[in-house]
């Protein structure tokens, strides 16, 4: 297992400087955004039609001894605004094609969220089954929008030898292990999850237990923490819509690894991933509003590198 970084937190730096910086932190694998919500600061889809640009890009990575764990294009391909959906779908397809050309096995995306009808303007995320309008809406979303798109898109990815890791995130139809496995049952084995424990914590889902539910459906992992503010939960609950920067009044906020849960928890998390066959990357994603990107990245890298080294399986004495 390796420690990596999702590079949008360093989007102000050119790729060469990003790679130089990460090597000083003991990191030699990156997750790169290609558009949609993460942006494309370090990986341009225009490389698809430019062999020379791809060669230069690959040489830059090779010169630094850095590999790519995933290409990420988190978007809403089911958005009821057809222009937005069309743009996000195109980016996702092009990301799969670029991953194929670069030999990257995984792309990361969101499942998306439709509206409430073919004429809707905004997404409509259903969070309860009653009144019955909501149950009817949820069934319509899955039957008429989610299933057709993801059946076709998953086949497209499989045909190009690429897996899609869906990040379980509230606001989209896939937000927990149950909905992740529902989509996987529809779309097939080329669709799995990008497991971000921070999104489990604030839904009151134990991430370690969730790994046991998902098993080999875990394709990629984000390393990000959440701090729960118990004093605010009686007021806010976990469905807190205040800005992430309103830290004093929120029920929870995203934190750097170790600032929501300590080293012993992260050791158990890594060990459980290994137990269920995951041996890829822990890709640091910085969204901690109380720490600068520099401080958050440095502290997360230090914590995770110590755990991954410590947790490396020892050579068997009986061999």
Main sheet: strands, sense, barrel: 8 strands, parallel, barrel
What is the mean predicted local confidence, pLDDT?
96
User: What radius of gyration results from the CA coordinates?
Assistant: 20 Å
CATH superfamily: Divalent-metal-dependent TIM barrel enzymes
CATH topology: TIM Barrel
Q: Which range best describes the helical content: under 10%, 10-25%, 25-40%, 40-55%, 55-70% or over 70%?
A: 40-55%
Q: Briefly, what CATH class? A: Alpha Beta
Order of helices and strands: EHEHEHEHEHEHHEEHEHEH
Q: What's the end-to-end separation, in Å?
A: 22 Å
Biggest sheet strand order reads 1-2-3-4-5-6-7-10
The second-level CATH architecture is Alpha-Beta Barrel
**Which residue ranges are poorly predicted, with pLDDT under 50 across at least 5 consecutive positions?**
none
Please tally the helical runs, counting DSSP H or I stretches of 4 or more residues: 10
Principal-axes shape call:
globular
Number of strands: 10
């Amino acid at each position: 297992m390796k420690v990596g970084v999702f590079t949008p937190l360093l989007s102000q730096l050119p790729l060469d400087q990003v790679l130089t910086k990460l090597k000083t932190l003991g990191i030699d694998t990156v997750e790169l955004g290609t558009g949609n919500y993460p942006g494309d600061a370090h990986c341009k889809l225009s490389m698809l039609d430019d062999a020379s640009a791809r060669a230069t890009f690959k040489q830059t990575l090779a010169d630094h001894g850095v590999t790519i764990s995933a290409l990420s294009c988190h978007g809403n391909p089911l958005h009821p605004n057809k222009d937005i959906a069309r743009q996000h779908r195109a980016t996702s397809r092009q990301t799969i094609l670029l991953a194929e050309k670069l030999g990257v096995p995984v792309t990361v995306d969101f499942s998306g969220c439709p509206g409430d009808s073919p004429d809707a303007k905004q997404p409509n995320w259903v969070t309860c089954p009653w009144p019955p309008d909501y149950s009817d809406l949820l069934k319509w979303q899955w039957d008429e929008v989610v299933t057709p798109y993801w059946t076709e898109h998953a086949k497209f990815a499989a045909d190009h030898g690429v897996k899609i890791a869906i990040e379980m995130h509230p606001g989209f139809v896939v937000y927990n292990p149950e909905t992740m496995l529902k989509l996987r049952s529809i779309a097939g084995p080329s669709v799995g999850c990008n497991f971000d424990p921070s999104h489990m914590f604030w839904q009151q889902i134990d991430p370690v237990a969730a790994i046991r539910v998902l098993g080999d459906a875990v394709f990629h992992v984000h390393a990000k923490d959440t701090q729960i503010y118990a004093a605010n939960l009686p007021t806010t609950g976990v469905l807190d819509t205040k800005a992430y920067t309103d830290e004093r009044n929120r029920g929870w906020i995203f934190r750097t690894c170790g600032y929501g849960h300590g080293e012993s928890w992260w050791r158990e998390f890594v060990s459980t991933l290994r137990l269920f066959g995951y041996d890829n990357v822990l890709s640091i994603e910085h969204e901690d509003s109380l720490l600068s990107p520099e401080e958050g990245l440095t502290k997360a890298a230090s914590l995770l590198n110590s755990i991954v080294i410590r947790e490396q399986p020892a050579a068997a004495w009986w061999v």
